[in-house]
Amino acid sequence: MTVSLGYIGAYIVLVGVGSFIESPVGRGFGPFQLNALIRTGSLVAALVALVLTHGFAIPAGPSALAGLGIGLITGVGSLFYCFALDFLSIAMVVTFSNLYIVIHNAARNRRPR
């Protein structure tokens, strides 16, 4: 459990630092450019994690298609996030964008078991 909490702590720190620096650094880019850079960085990190965890095995089948669909939905959400950075403070955008956890848990609790 300690290792898992360490991973969560690292996630919080890394996402917090990334969120903090993306506003001043991203001012030189348009929303589409910023979204492309964020997604490219995420893809590189995901590929490294995939290779370290499973070797060079590429997921296949319906699970891979579902993952691509989820990635597309998340990417579109990220685009709206980048648009919001043009009009609101970074603190407000990050705070509201993290409300996805509430939506996730509400949807999860409504599912029949």
Description:
This protein is mainly α. It has one domain. The protein contains five helices and no strands. The protein has helices at 2-26, 31-54, 62-87, 90-97, 100-110. The chain is globular and about 40 Å long.
Beta content comes to under 5%
Distance between the termini: 26 Å
Bin the helical content: over 70%
The chain-level mean pLDDT equals 82
Q: Helix segment count?
A: 5
Order of helices and strands: HHHHH
Keywords:
single chain; 113 residues; mainly alpha; 0% strand; globular
In brief, what are we looking at here?
Helices cover 83% and strands 0% of the residues. The protein has 113 residues and is an all-alpha fold.
Topology:
Elements: H1 2-26, H2 31-54, H3 62-87, H4 90-97, H5 100-110
